[in-house]
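Teaching assistant's notes for section 4

Start the section by putting this record on the projector. Ask students to predict, before seeing the second block, whether Group II truncated hemoglobin will look compact or extended. Collect guesses on the board.
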Amino acid sequence: MSGVDEPGLPTLYDWAGGLEPLRRMIDCVYDRVESDQPLASFVPGGASERHRGHVAVWWGEVLGPPTTHTERHGGYESMLLHYLDLDISPEQRHRFAATMSLAADDAGLPGDPEFRAAIIGYLEWGIRLAMENSRPRARVVEHASTPRWGWSVAPPYRG
Ligand code: HEM
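Reveal the predicted structure now:
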């Protein structure tokens, strides 16, 4: 199946090596988060197997196909519900983003600049939306598709 890029290019999911390396990255990020004081309060008692698995297939769908999160776990709407009133601070946003970048190294994801620029671009975009949506009384977009990400730079958002 093709992704959002021009035909013939591998998807970011394929370039990563499929779901397993993405799951490894998610395990690495939550292993770090669990013992990182500014972030650990978001995962009281540790990040569950369910949480880790769902976040991994979310990433798989964004970078893929496959579209497993939408088909089995509720897609965008389900993800959004987890963020309401979480009140992520700018410092926590930055800390989590930096931790995820380290986790991509821990997990041995491809290190080429193009792949890393693409996934970190998505991370930066997604985590800023997560922070905005997490504010008390945030005005959220209630329904949307799960985002799709590719190799090229995203065009400007015009609403
Ligand atoms: C400071 C940053 C972040 C914090 C504090 C955070 C925290 C959380 C929490 C507390 C949950 C609910 C877990 C549960 O109910 O077991 C969650 C779910 C989720 N997070 Fe995050 N997260 C952050 C960043 C991100 C980013 C950057 C992404 C993706 C780009 C992401 C993707 C998801 C998804 C897909 C779920 C829902 C999984 C499901 O149940 O289907 N998160 N997050």
